[in-house]
Structure formats: structure tokens, C-alpha cells
Design goal:
Layout: H1 10-30, H2 36-64, H3 74-93, H4 100-131, H5 134-150, H6 176-186
Helix pairs in contact: 1-2, 1-4, 1-5, 2-3, 2-4, 2-5, 3-4
């Protein structure tokens, strides 16, 4: 779960999230390959990253599109990075923990996420701060924390499904990882 401080505005919250994830990445690097703690931390980190990206998709990128200078492709680049990160998380979930492929995907995920955070902090955050009212950013910070708390930990796939009206969508089946997370973390024994 991400760090939540009620008074942080959107950009402060997202920066805090980036720092939390960077610390997790460092913890992962400190654990030996094949260590079961590393695998658990990898999945926890991936879940946290997906929740964070969902909050950015919903709150940061819509306001970042406003007032961008002509020819500035920071928003498009950021959205492409999100798609790549979601794809890496999906690949990681489908790969046997402890395998060489798992470790390779995890290293790519950490590298791409770290670069993505730096790009956002350097290119998007200053422009959003300059063109957004403080009360609006504070409200968006509260909303982003709620999204991070409630968002699915399974990366969403972009595609035709996203085009359907909400009432036509069927609730997604929980992945094995989500069911086990609920069972062992929260004692939930329901069969979803």
C-alpha cells in the first residue's frame, strides 16, 4: 500500500509514491535471486505500481494534457510508458517466480519504472504545478489516494473492452494472485 498523507496534493502524493517504489526497488536489489522474500516483494511492488499508474491515468494525465507547449510529447511518452509498464507486469505475473525470465522481467520493470518516474518529475510535474490551482491539486491528491486504495492490482489491457459502456462490462474474475493475496492477507475465503 502506498504512503498516504491526507494533506498532500496530487503532485506531492505521486512524488511520495515514486519514492516508496524506489525504496522497494532497492529492497528487491538487496535480496538474492531465488529468495522467496524477493518473489513476494516483487509481486507486492508490482501491485503497488499498478495502483499508482491507475491513479496517474485518472488524475495526472488529464490535467497534464492541458496547457502543454506545441510539439511537447511528454504526455504521449508518459502514456506509452504506462502501457509498457502494464505489459511488463502482465508478463511478470505469467512467469514462473525464481526463473531467469522472471528476474529479467523484474529488472526491466524496475529500470523502466525508474526512468518513467524521473521523466514525469522533470517534465510533467513542473508544468502541472504552474498551470493548476492549489485547491484543485489538493482535491486531486485526495482522489488519487482513494483510487490507489481501491484500484485493481491487475493491470488493465487496453482494447475494445474499454470502449463498452460501463453497464455492459462484466466484473473481472480475480487472478490466482489476487485470490491468494486476499486469502492470506485478509483471511478472505470466498470463491469469487
Amino acid at each position: 500500500m502506498m504512503a498516504t498523507v491526507p494533506e498532500l496534493d496530487l503532485l506531492e502524493q505521486l512524488t511520495t509514491d515514486h519514492e516508496v517504489l524506489r525504496v522497494r526497488f532497492s529492497e528487491l536489489a538487496g535480496l538474492p535471486l531465488g529468495d522467496p522474500r524477493r518473489e513476494r516483494l516483487a509481486f507486492l511492488t508490482a501491485d503497488t505500481l499498478v495502483r499508482h499508474l491507475a491513479a496517474e491515468d485518472e488524475y495526472l494525465y488529464p490535467i497534464a494534457r492541458l496547457d502543454r507547449p506545441t510539439g511537447d510529447d511528454a504526455v504521449a511518452h508518459g502514456m506509452q510508458s504506462h502501457a509498457a509498464l502494464y505489459g511488463l507486469v502482465r508478463e511478470l505475473e505469467a512467469t514462473a517466480p525464481g526463473s531467469a525470465e522472471f528476474d529479467r522481467l523484474l529488472a526491466r520493470l524496475v529500470e523502466q519504472a525508474t526512468g518513467h518516474f524521473g521523466q514525469e518529475e522533470a517534465q510533467l510535474f513542473p508544468t502541472v504545478r504552474a498551470h493548476s490551482a492549489a485547491p484543485r491539486l489538493t482535491t486531486l491528491g485526495e482522489q488519487a489516494r482513494e483510487t490507489e486504495r481501491t484500484a485493481s492490482t491487475h493491470p488493465r489491457a487496453a482494447g475494445p473492452r474499454d470502449m463498452l459502456p460501463p453497464d455492459d462490462l462484466v466484473a473481472p474474475e480475480l487472478t490466482w494472485h489476487e485470490r491468494m493475496h486476499r486469502r492470506f492477507r485478509f483471511g478472505d475465503t470466498r470463491e469469487d
